[in-house]
Amino acid sequence: MSTLRERLQRIKENFTQQAPPEAITAINNSNESIRASGLLSKAPTEGDILPSFDLEDTEGHLSHSEELIKRGPLVLTFYRGLW
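-> structure tokens emitted (83 positions)
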């Protein structure tokens, strides 16, 4: 069984092989801009404990982190929106 990191790396490699070059350039430029901003040093990292929070899911239902974590490990994904 592969780790999440390994699976994500394969997804990234597959995307890179199939995506239009201009999309790859836009993504790389955006990533570099974020790195240069210094924001990454302030971002939570693997293993950090976050405060409790409430978020709406994609259907508008409120999700409470304390309830979700009772089911097992919690993974958060943030969508940056349009490039």
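The chain has three helices and two strands.
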